[in-house]
Design brief:
By secondary structure, the chain is mostly helical. It has one domain. The protein contains 1 helix and no strands. The longest helix has 7 residues. It is globular, with a radius of gyration of 12 Å. The mean pLDDT is 80.
Length: 46
């Protein structure tokens, strides 16, 4: 699955032991429910 490019809404301290929690935002609530919770690779582009 490719969510696409996004801009960080915040840069909290959710990084621990090489893992982080990332919130994805969708236009519609139903999209959020379909996507659910997943373990994904995240790449930071500068």
């Amino acid at each position: 699955y490719v969510y696409g490019y996004a801009i960080a809404g915040d840069t909290g301290t959710a990084l621990r032991n090489g893992h982080c929690v990332v919130d994805l935002f969708f236009k519609h609530y139903e999209e959020c429910l379909r996507f659910g919770a997943k373990k994904l690779n995240v790449y930071v582009l500068k």
